[in-house]
């Protein structure tokens, strides 16, 4: 049984070494990060699917591996947040603490300190229709901030870039009475935005007629369907936006309005390069008085065009980082998007299952390399096989818990015995193993029958789950399945090297 231990040393107690108070200090921080990660480029540029095929564990300090291999899952989940254990090797503790000191602080800021006087208003049920709790919270806060900024700079119009279904634009229009233009690349989103806005408008129009007769009916946000590919395009759209009606792929791009305008550009989850384009537009377009952007999908930022004149790459943007000559690559950007707090918040079972799915996918890559080498060059994608497997496991866990409560003499011991036999003897017929590959037991299921039996059969359980994962992946790729012995051979090779040892 796993017993959660209270961490002995917490990185939160360590002082932040770096700051962004000045350009010089910011550049020092950037260079410190670059100097730290360069020796580990072979890891940051690696992909988890190649953990086994590239034998990545061979590059890790054996002392670290020996320590972490037997570490409780809950302690491993705390590492991204900089939490270490007293019994770890000094070099490992120093590594984790150095990493944490270089990371940007994640403490949530107090909105009233940043924007004095901002009043975050809860959305009514009409405006909040279709939003989940997270989206509702984001729209409530950001709309209040955008409205405050727009008022402070005297903006005539707010341009919502990457508007999606128009949640932010509609709140700014109906709750804060701003003139808003919503830009999105998807014509379907534009249609949804317009229909949703009309429904909201009917509600507000009825309220106005009832409570304020004679007052005009509120306008709805204008919509533009256009993929913003460059700063010049966004500049043209922002210049023309206050003077147009709803349009799709407007032919007016490039025509600049004669009279002066005052704009704020805003974005909630402006994906990848779109956030960079908004910042550049703010710098280059004098009509744009402010930008309020919450970026996302930083792994989608474009790279690789440092030497191309006039390039529109999304990273790097600053002269300081450009001068350092850094290139991250897709795998590093994907890794950078991982949330340390998300891993920290996982429970033991969920964390262990995440590790297992990564191990299955990495072992499946070994299957492809050994038996289907011709497909590797195409970078095959098998979709989210792990999520389907997880749902099946959760159903089995629930059913197993019920069975354990109902009877201590259930048929589970017979199943476990069969699993153990299968793991030791992979030459069993496919007809027998197929009956059990769809009902492989999770550690939670096995635990109800005693620790000894669990220890004897956990390996067989994981093997059956891997086999099911691999068969599903081969089916997704349209490839013929393998014999039982081949799956067993791959898993026996991969099993000793736990993926979480990295």
From TrEMBL:
Report domain Methyltransferase positions: 134-303
What the entry lists under Pfam families is as follows: Methyltransf_32
Tell me which InterPro entries the record gives: Methyltranfer_dom (IPR025714), METTL25 (IPR052220), SAM-dependent_MTases_sf (IPR029063)
Quote the protein name from its UniProt record.
Answer: Methyltransferase-like protein 25 isoform X2
Q: Which organism is it from?
A: Populus euphratica
| Gene from which this protein is expressed | LOC105116961
């Amino acid at each position: 049984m796993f017993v959660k231990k209270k961490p002995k040393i917490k990185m939160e107690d360590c002082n932040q070494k770096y700051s962004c108070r000045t350009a010089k200090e910011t550049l020092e921080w950037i260079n410190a990060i670059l100097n730290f990660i360069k020796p580990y480029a072979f890891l940051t540029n690696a992909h988890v699917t190649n953990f086994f095929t590239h034998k990545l564990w061979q590059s890790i300090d054996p002392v670290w591996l020996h320590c972490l291999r037997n570490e409780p899952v809950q302690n491993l989940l705390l590492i991204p947040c900089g939490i270490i254990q007293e019994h770890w090797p000094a070099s490992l503790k120093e590594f984790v603490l150095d990493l944490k000191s270089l990371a940007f602080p994640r403490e949530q800021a107090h909105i009233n300190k940043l924007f004095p006087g901002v009043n975050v208003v809860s959305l009514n049920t009409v405006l909040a229709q279709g939003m989940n709790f997270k989206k509702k919270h984001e729209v409530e806060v950001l709309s209040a901030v955008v409205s405050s900024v727009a008022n402070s700079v005297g903006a005539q119009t707010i341009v919502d870039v990457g508007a999606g279904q128009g949640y932010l634009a509609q709140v700014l229009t109906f709750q804060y009475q701003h003139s808003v233009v919503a830009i999105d690349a998807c014509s379907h989103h534009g249609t949804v935005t317009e229909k949703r806005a009309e429904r909201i408008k009917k509600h507000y129009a009825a309220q106005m007629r009832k409570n304020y007769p004679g007052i005009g009916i509120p306008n709805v946000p204008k919509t533009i369907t256009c993929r913003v590919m460059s700063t010049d395009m966004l500049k043209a759209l922002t210049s023309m936006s206050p003077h147009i009606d709803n349009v799709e792929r407007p032919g007016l791009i490039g025509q600049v309005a004669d009279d002066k305008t005052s704009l704020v550009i805003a974005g909630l989850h402006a994906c990848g390069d779109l956030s960079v384009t908004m910042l550049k537009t703010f710098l280059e377009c004098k009509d744009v008085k402010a930008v309020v952007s919450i970026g996302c999908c930083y792994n989608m930022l474009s790279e690789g065009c440092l030497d191309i004149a006039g390039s529109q790459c999304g990273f790097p943007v600053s002269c300081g980082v450009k001068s350092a000559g850094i290139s991250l690559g897709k795998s590093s950007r994907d890794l950078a998007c991982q949330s340390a707090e998300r891993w920290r918040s996982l429970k033991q079972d969920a964390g262990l299952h995440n590790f297992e799915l990564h191990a299955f996918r990495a072992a499946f890559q070994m299957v492809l390399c050994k038996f289907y080498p011709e497909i590797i060059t195409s970078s095959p994608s098998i979709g989210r096989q792990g999520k389907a497997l997880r749902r099946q496991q959760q159903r089995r866990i629930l059913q197993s818990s019920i069975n354990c409560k109902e009877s201590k003499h259930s048929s589970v011991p017979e199943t476990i015995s069969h699993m153990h036999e299968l793991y030791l003897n992979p030459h069993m017929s496919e007809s027998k193993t197929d009956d059990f590959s769809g009902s492989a037991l999770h550690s939670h299921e096995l635990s109800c029958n005693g620790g000894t039996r669990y220890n004897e059969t956990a390996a067989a359980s994981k093997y059956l789950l891997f086999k099911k994962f691999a068969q599903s992946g081969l089916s997704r790729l349209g490839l013929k399945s393998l014999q039982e012995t081949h799956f067993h051979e791959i898993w026996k090779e991969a099993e000793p090297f736990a993926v979480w040892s990295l």
